């Protein structure tokens, strides 16, 4: 491989890191409150808001049902509004975040819903308010599941970010398609795949390790 | 457990106003006038709307629980015990009727008052319900943390209750590393750390082995005696009631089957449900006797009678050995004894094997022998 290609791969690696890092961070920040709201407002939950629950749930389903490539194109006007451009890494972060947030919110919802109802009652019985229950019961008890779900979200965003090349965002997937596929450079293709495998394995390993540590308590 | 500790740290809080004023939780929640931990149910009904249609879990329960007693609620699974108990701290709202805690209508409380009430009413659970992500210390501290008690006070009070339940040194352990009995002790410590006046126990010993059950019951009794705490305790085992309760309520199908002092209910169960619950505790006829026994005196050969003397604890009936042996005559043997002393009242029965004679029925009808006597059956004389 030429030094330019190595340089190109390095930059693509950084771009992928940026896209995945930024979008999963946003997914984390927005997905947890959404998941908490979904759980708290569900039938028999601590907040009585069935309509808002259905609305948010429906929106999440809508975004989850739309394929990422379609979402990316459909969101172009919105992306321009937010970032001022429709190409480049940050332009890709917008649809990636909007795809990752509902994805993670649903996974987080499942973990939160699995928290034993008896624990919530015990907290209520000692005088905890709703906020205390979220802070001291729901989130800490669901933490292993949340960490595991976040790991899955990161890995799936690494995959989705490969498609961001369509809007000129670069990244490893883009390099693989442009050089490996379109110019028949098998070496580049294999190297990119190897790098992606290493990244995914590292993320999964770190996530599994954290979950194991949390569950060992 | 040491008494000095109780006296120092756990002097009944509501009887020492100065202590109450220095106490952050109690400052936020000054006990209402005359607050002492009594509970009154007035025609409480509860109907659940399940997918299979409405379920009438409670069908009009009226009961008074005096402050400071250990009050047992017993009944078969599904009788409505948990539903009733959970109305006290409003984990469940009655569909109809009222629940009064120290004359305060629980249903009428707004959120702030409800939180205050819940700090006066501790609760422990069958499956302990400890937070797995928090250490023993953090679990017990939670009620104080959310009540914004200063950190130093929290440390002291958690240490105090840990000592009370006999778990010193376990502060930094996670609940998953504890045995069932230890977990329930943590549950008790968490319930007591806000210095409640009432402790609700929902099948608190049902997940524990018999030995651990006894030690937890002993702890509860200690707490009741030393802190003057009212304890409302659910169980499906009569042995638990006998062990520590003062009064008992028997629930059957969402209704009160009977209620009263434990010795009365044990000595003289009136309702079929009560007898069914008591059955596992009482011994039947010994197997060898059951095989030999006949319903009528044996013709033409010497025979003996099996006589049962029952004591219900009423009147001043004591088991007077001399009187019994005089009445039944030489050769009366004690076959089996199933006696207990509950709250100072003799309860249970003995079986005697006595030489049969024609006037036996008249002799044993003497009310001075026992509360009830009867001839169970007859066996051939073996001598
Ligand atoms: N949340 C609920 N929804 C529907 N039915 C319930 C609910 N809780 C209890 N029940 C029903 O109410 C009845 C009494 O239940 P419970 O109070 O738990 O009885 P116990 O504690 O004596 O076993 C049972 O028939 C039970 O199925
Ligand atoms: Mg129950």
TrEMBL record, chain A:
<keyword id="KW-1003">Cell membrane</keyword>
<dbReference type="InterPro" id="IPR035906">
    <property type="entry name" value="MetI-like_sf"/>
</dbReference>
<dbReference type="GO" id="GO:0005886">
    <property type="term" value="C:plasma membrane"/>
</dbReference>
<keyword id="KW-0812">Transmembrane</keyword>
<keyword id="KW-0813">Transport</keyword>
<feature type="transmembrane region" description="Helical">
    <location>
        <begin position="20"/>
        <end position="40"/>
    </location>
</feature>
<feature type="transmembrane region" description="Helical">
    <location>
        <begin position="142"/>
        <end position="167"/>
    </location>
</feature>
<dbReference type="InterPro" id="IPR000515">
    <property type="entry name" value="MetI-like"/>
</dbReference>
<keyword id="KW-1133">Transmembrane helix</keyword>
<dbReference type="GO" id="GO:0048473">
    <property type="term" value="P:D-methionine transmembrane transport"/>
</dbReference>
<feature type="transmembrane region" description="Helical">
    <location>
        <begin position="87"/>
        <end position="105"/>
    </location>
</feature>
<keyword id="KW-0472">Membrane</keyword>
<feature type="domain" description="ABC transmembrane type-1">
    <location>
        <begin position="13"/>
        <end position="205"/>
    </location>
</feature>
<dbReference type="Pfam" id="PF00528">
    <property type="entry name" value="BPD_transp_1"/>
</dbReference>
<protein>
    <submittedName>
        <fullName>ABC transporter permease</fullName>
    </submittedName>
</protein>
<comment type="similarity">
    <text>Belongs to the binding-protein-dependent transport system permease family. CysTW subfamily.</text>
</comment>
<feature type="transmembrane region" description="Helical">
    <location>
        <begin position="52"/>
        <end position="75"/>
    </location>
</feature>
<feature type="transmembrane region" description="Helical">
    <location>
        <begin position="187"/>
        <end position="211"/>
    </location>
</feature>
<dbReference type="InterPro" id="IPR051322">
    <property type="entry name" value="AA_ABC_Transporter_Permease"/>
</dbReference>
UniProtKB/TrEMBL annotation, chain B:
<dbReference type="InterPro" id="IPR003593">
    <property type="entry name" value="AAA+_ATPase"/>
</dbReference>
<keyword id="KW-0067">ATP-binding</keyword>
<dbReference type="InterPro" id="IPR027417">
    <property type="entry name" value="P-loop_NTPase"/>
</dbReference>
<protein>
    <recommendedName>
        <fullName>Cell division ATP-binding protein FtsE</fullName>
    </recommendedName>
</protein>
<keyword id="KW-0472">Membrane</keyword>
<keyword id="KW-0029">Amino-acid transport</keyword>
<dbReference type="Pfam" id="PF00005">
    <property type="entry name" value="ABC_tran"/>
</dbReference>
<feature type="domain" description="ABC transporter">
    <location>
        <begin position="39"/>
        <end position="278"/>
    </location>
</feature>
<dbReference type="InterPro" id="IPR017871">
    <property type="entry name" value="ABC_transporter-like_CS"/>
</dbReference>
<dbReference type="GO" id="GO:0005524">
    <property type="term" value="F:ATP binding"/>
</dbReference>
<keyword id="KW-1003">Cell membrane</keyword>
<dbReference type="GO" id="GO:0016887">
    <property type="term" value="F:ATP hydrolysis activity"/>
</dbReference>
<dbReference type="InterPro" id="IPR050086">
    <property type="entry name" value="MetN_ABC_transporter-like"/>
</dbReference>
<dbReference type="GO" id="GO:0005886">
    <property type="term" value="C:plasma membrane"/>
</dbReference>
<dbReference type="GO" id="GO:0006865">
    <property type="term" value="P:amino acid transport"/>
</dbReference>
<keyword id="KW-1278">Translocase</keyword>
<keyword id="KW-0547">Nucleotide-binding</keyword>
<dbReference type="InterPro" id="IPR041701">
    <property type="entry name" value="MetN_ABC"/>
</dbReference>
<keyword id="KW-0813">Transport</keyword>
<comment type="function">
    <text>Part of the ABC transporter FtsEX involved in cellular division. Important for assembly or stability of the septal ring.</text>
</comment>
<dbReference type="InterPro" id="IPR003439">
    <property type="entry name" value="ABC_transporter-like_ATP-bd"/>
</dbReference>
<comment type="similarity">
    <text>Belongs to the ABC transporter superfamily.</text>
</comment>
